[in-house]
Task: structure prediction
Amino acid sequence: MTRNTMLMSFILILLLSSFAFANEPLKVIFDTDFAIPPQDDGMALILALNSPELEVIGITTVAGNYSMERATADALRVLEIANREDIPVYMGSNMPLVHEYGPFADTVWGNWWSDEVPPAPPGGYAKKQPEKENAVSYIVDTVMNNPGEIDIIAIGPLTNIAMAIKLQPGFAQNVKGLTIMGGALANLPDGAGNVTPNAEYNFWVDPEAAKVVMRSGIPINLSPLNVSRKTGLTKDEYERMVAVDTPITQLIKETMGPRYESNPDLSALMYDQVAVASLIDPTLVTTREMYVDVDINHGMNYGVSVGWHREWPGAEGAQKMLVQYDLDWERFIDMFIERVTQPIPEK
Result:
């Protein structure tokens, strides 16, 4: 073999190795205030499970839409339906860091404060049980044992992630990336809140946790209400999903069908699904670099996220991150439907 041939062979091996490495799935921890579809967390998990670009290595639950116990029960059941009992589920925080239940919480969506026994999911409680290790220690151990290799998808209140940051000083520097569904930025179009005039629900449930995470230095890709409001799942798109018969689409038909039957003109916003899709294919969303911070003062702006192109008085220490504000809807919904309707893997 000549020297040139050896050199070309070496270069070819390097290129093939780089290509293989680039196409390895992202290892992700899925942190969620989960609920069975039609809840967006449930639909987002199905998208993640059916996407070869992602490898969900663990699910961690947190109080948000419902109690942490209900999030856990529902997540276990969806994994059972999807034949993915191989994925471990870890129980996380059942209350925010500081935010206390009050009368206003009774008037809005969600019962994160509940300590009631969760209702049985469709088909009954899963046989699969959660892991004995708690979610925060699992998140910390996994990231610290795999520095720079783990992405986190956080689509509920950020309590677990904030606690991990506080528990391990080196944690933030070792997270590869963090994709968050949360916040609403008035400095961008469609920036109003959905729980108070300017606060988005996930950040409002645990503003103190959101502030810790926003200022942590972890590379963040923020998917706020601004981009969620570019979505709208219609009856036609719902029918495209349930036209394919799988255990997952049967679940979707059972839980979403009555909504479209009673309101054929329904156009349902998609929140967590966009966050997951943006990690699968970043070209689906349009982003802008902004400094983002969270108001933790107990007043009318509690839980409000604020973003700007530079730091400003009162937000010293705010970090720059990518903020999503637009979406290629047609490509997104086609990918979403194609992935969600995939056959269930055999055990």
Observations:
- The longest helix spans residues 3-22.
